[in-house]
Amino acid sequence: MLLSLALRNIWRNKRRTLLTVSAMVVSSALLILALGIFSGMLNDMLAAATEQYRGHLVISMPGYQQDREIFNSFVPDFVLLEELDKDPDVLGVSPRLRGFGLLSHGHNTYPAELLGIRPRKERQVTNLEKHLTGGRYPAEEAADEALLGRGLAQKLGVEPGDELVFVTQAADGSIGNDLLTVTGIFATGDTTHDNSLVLVPLAWLQKVMVLENKVHEIALRIHRPDKASVLADRLSALLPGQLRIVTWGSLMPELQEAILSFDASRLIVAVILYLATGLGILNTVYMSVMERTREFGVLMAIGMRTWQIRLLVLSETLIMGLLSLIVGCGLGAFMTLYMQQVGIDLSRHLTPITYAGSTILPRLHAVNEAGNYLLPAVMLLIIALLAGWLPARRAAKLQPADALREE
Amino acid sequence: MPLIQLTDVEKIYPLGNQQVVALSEFSLSIDKGEFTVLAGPSGSGKTTVLNLIGGIDQPTRGRIEIEGRDVGRRSTRALADFRLRHIGFIFQSYNLIPVLTAAENAEFTLMLQGMTKPARRARIRDLFADLGIGGLENRKPRDLSGGQQQRVAVARAMASHPAVILADEPTANLDSQTAEGLLDLMHRLNRQHHTTFIFSSHDPLVISRARRIVRLRDGRLEDDRVQQP
């Protein structure tokens, strides 16, 4: 009957209850949406950093990721590549050779980073093909095709079909140079890559740099980027002694920090938002308790214990909290789903922002994650209970005779 | 041994910086089955005596015993339990819980005592029939007349078979005919169940129907006499 009494008390003043529940619903739904967009931004940043260039895991010689030393190369073991390919947690394996040099077209010459790839394998690891603004991705069997960033293409003044000259210092000390044909231009929004990166056939770059059959790294794309360290530990057992495997987090510690700080950030956002909501609930429950002072006096006079009075008031706030939670999560899920499917494109008003070694894209896009519901849910219930605690305490502390004298 | 014994009871209420003496050197004995009215003008201390006997207020000085146990020195929890098991309250303005039905109001004490729902419902059905309000079980207080509400309040007070029923100005909001009916009912319950009734009232009708009249003035006992029926 206590629960029934609590439920009926909630509906005594329907307008006030609806206003309080609405405040809780709106705050929890907006929080879920905000956290979904926050998660979406971080996912975009992680994808921009790993799926446009680096990969989630990278196998290379010790020190190569720090100094990019040309001689720190290795011959990839065919069996190793097969095993990595077959691993159920691995989505793609791409051997790469990296060279730095000068690219020229006509009178224009600019420094560039050339990444020698096998197009079919690289497509499984990075998604530059999705960012083409002109031309096409290099063909698998092509000998001298180049895909370059829009910034670099604009500086060089080239379009698909134009020729480029690449000059670099080869591994044998000679000057390596050769012609390339522009087949495509990409734009990721990350100025570092858009202004300097060029994808070329692996065999072509091996020949120019006199590093036959050699690569500098093997990039991997995996199912669970958040579990990269665990997979790295497992895969390191497959590697020959001199090779090392590193995670995206080790390669981009700033980005890892930014993602790890998300938990603290969302807690802060939730606390600020719910503080205001909590004060609203506190006000409502306090008013409700004050109005029922005489009634609490009657309940005490007929034998209700103080803990039952406290439980009654707390049940009322908890029921309002649970009701708001269900509706708020539903509304939050609906809005998050909409932002996941449709999103808002801000590229006409904003340019991409480079941050923590990655890129924040000019769009609002959400992802649905369990954690983005769990935190608002738990916090809403805690806030409801805290907001109910003070009025419940006040009601329980009433002296029956004094309460009965209240008008 | 009397059912209720008040010995040299004093009750002082703080009022700002002053102290108001509501009851002073007040002693009273009430036996089981009495039908007593505490009479006197407003502010004479009638409600204070009822509150002290009912354990919803505590004396500043003196001793209050119910069935030989000191009520004035009990913990909050023990007092709540004492009220639940031994006391029934009837208030001037009925004080029914507006969101509960008549039956739910009446069975509330039984619920607090842990009685099962079927047993509660059976008890309330019998009680409502006995009090002449059968068929009104599912009505909310706002859908009942004043007299009906006060009968529901009597049912709530009677439900758990308390030793004492304390009624604070129970007829104050009722017309004389309804008040007469309520007093008849209480007389009958007093005779049938030997329940002790203590009223506070300055209503001549209530005073004329009581067997014992305890008059108070300015917080002191003025007169205590038994009248013939």
Explain briefly what this protein structure is.
The complex is a heterodimer of chains A (407) and B (229). Helices cover 53% and strands 20% of the residues of chain A.
Question: What ranges of chain B have pLDDT less than 50 throughout 5 or more consecutive residues?
Answer: none
Beta-sheet strand percentage of chain B? 25-35%
Structural class of chain A: alpha+beta
Radius of gyration of chain B: 17 Å
The major beta sheet of chain B can be summarized as: 6 strands, mixed
**Span of the ends, CA to CA of chain A:** 26 Å
Strand order in the sheet with the most strands of chain A: 2-3-8-5-7-6
The average pLDDT value of chain A, as a whole number, equals 90
Helix count of chain A, per DSSP? 15
Order of helical and strand elements of chain B? EEEHEEHEHHHHEHEHEE
Key attributes of the depicted protein:
heterodimer, A: 407 residues, two-stranded antiparallel sheet, 15 helices, 53% helix, B: alpha/beta, 35% helix, globular
Overall description:
The complex is a heterodimer of chains A (407) and B (229). With 407 residues, chain A is an alpha+beta fold. Chain A has 15 helices and 14 strands. Chain A has two domains: 2-49 and 256-405, no CATH class; 62-242, no CATH class. Chain A is 53% helix and 20% strand. In chain A, a hairpin with a 2-residue loop joins strand 2 and strand 3. The longest helix of chain A is centred in the first third of the chain and has 41 residues, at 14-54. The radius of gyration of chain A is 31 Å and the shape is elongated. Chain A starts with a helix and ends with a helix. In chain A, 44% of the residues are buried. The mean pLDDT of chain A is 90. Chain B has one domain: Rossmann fold, CATH 3.40.50. Chain B contains eight helices and ten strands. Chain B has helices spanning 46-53, 76-86, 102-106, 108-112, 117-130, 146-158, 176-193, 204-209, and strands at residues 4-15, 18-30, 35-39, 61-66, 69-70, 87-90, 164-168, 196-201, 212-217, 220-226. In chain B, strand 4 (61-66) and strand 5 (69-70) form a beta hairpin. In chain B, 47% of the residues are buried. Chain A binds chain B through residues 1, 4-5, 8-9, 11-12, 294-295, 297-306, 308, 399-401, 404, and chain B through 51, 54, 56-57, 76-77, 80-81, 83-85, 87-89, 91, 95, 97-100, 104, 108-109, 111-113, 156.
